[in-house]
Write a structure and sequence with these properties.
Length: about 100
């Protein structure tokens, strides 16, 4: 039964490579303008053996930002800055939700 955690899991239309899900965790590693940094990519790459990852808390507008150095996704530059991180985890066959 314990091997089941390593077996694939269907989450609606996503096929996860295993049953492990990484919880969202506040790391404060974005830059001061809410852009994703290389350090964040490294953090996620190190954890990319999960089936599904939750990204860190991500403000969807300036008024929603409760913490410094969290990555935003409400400007075009912020959205673009996620690309290297998501590309890196997708190489490892992991899905990531923001
Ligand atoms: C926005 C947000 C930020 C979080 N940041 C952290 C964190 O920095 N460290 C942490 O241990 N849990 C953090 N959590 C909680 C975890 O995501 C997770 O819910 C918690 O560890 C409990 O896990 P469980 O629901 O599986 O019991 C955060 C949750 C949210 C919604």
């Amino acid at each position: 039964m314990s091997e089941r955690i390593f077996s694939p899991f269907s989450l609606n239309d996503l096929l996860l490579s295993n049953h492990m899900v990484m919880a969202t965790m506040t790391r404060y590693r974005a830059d001061q303008n809410g852009h994703v940094t290389d350090r964040m990519g490294t953090h996620c790459q190190h954890r990319a053996s999960a089936g599904l990852m939750n990204a860190e808390p991500t403000p969807v507008c300036a008024a929603a930002n409760g913490y410094p150095y969290t990555p935003g996704i409400f400007t075009h530059d912020q959205a673009a800055s996620w690309r290297r991180l998501t590309d890196a985890v997708h190489v490892a066959d992991v899905h990531i939700f923001v």
